[in-house]
Amino acid sequence: MSKIILDVDTGVDDALAIIYGIESKKIDLLGITTVSGNVPLHMTERNTRKVLRLIGREDIKVYPGADRPLIREPEYEFRVHGTDGIGNALDDMKIENQTEEQFAADFIIEQAKKYKGDLTLIMVGPVTNLALALRKEPKIADWINEVIIMGGLVSMAGKGNKLPNSEFNIFADAEAASIVFHSGIEVTLVSLDVTLQTYMKLEHIEKLKGTKYYDFVLNSTKVFRAFSEKQYGTNGCALHDPLTIGYFLDPSYIETKKYFVDVETVSPLNYGQTICDFRNLWKKEPNVNICLNVDAERFIDDFIETLKQA
Ligand code: RIB
Ligand code: CA
Questions:
Q1: How many domains does the chain have?
Q2: What is the residue range of 168's domain?
Q3: b/e for 283-310, b at 16 or more Cβ within 10 A?
């Protein structure tokens, strides 16, 4: 399996993805890069380091990235992730921000050069850091194996979570997503079309009772679950970011197919929309592997089992 850089905007489901990826014991994680997204950059850094302490893996280095999108103003999602970004579940844990000096985009370039053809990026926040890295060193498009991005929606017009046709990560920096989609890198987009089928509900969380992560999973997801119930009528935490890790661990969870996908960066109604040309009307070369369906139950079971065995 290739080496991994995980890019996060920790956030509740980012935290679950970090735990799941590390506890799977199947990923060779070179480092974690952080980006402004769900909450401001300094909070994503602090939250990521808190989660690494919870896991017992503070040896994993955290590299600070962009503290804002390329062009627009940040729009945070405290209503989903809580005032601190992880549902205030680790408020008692005091941690100083000792992130690495090296900027995330420079770390991505350095590692892509060092591990040409053997590096996969898993990105579960806005893709600002990769866009910056591509602008500084375009050759990384040939050096990076694949970038697996949690983002977008392609077959569910009107069911976005930021605008009717836009998903948060792509909406948060649509210009960055456009740069990445048109870079020539092998892109797989784990979109709301499949992640919204992976709701972790209380009945799943209860299976963790008495294990290392029960308290954190129950407490960190409280705000997220309540928001989902109010907004979408389902009391649960959609495992957006963990499924993105899951796809890397076992691609058989998701059926994918390559199409031409572009990103809306102008329209106020659809800013951040990921437009999939299923009928090839634009006659353009397919550039993104999109997700058609997911074995949600098997994935959720594996997610819970992995955390249970920790
Ligand atoms: O739309 C869901 C995505 O936006 C997830 O990655 C969540 O953490 C937020 O970043
Ligand atoms: Ca995220």
A1: 1
A2: 3-308
A3: eeeebbbbbeebbbeebbebbbebbbeb
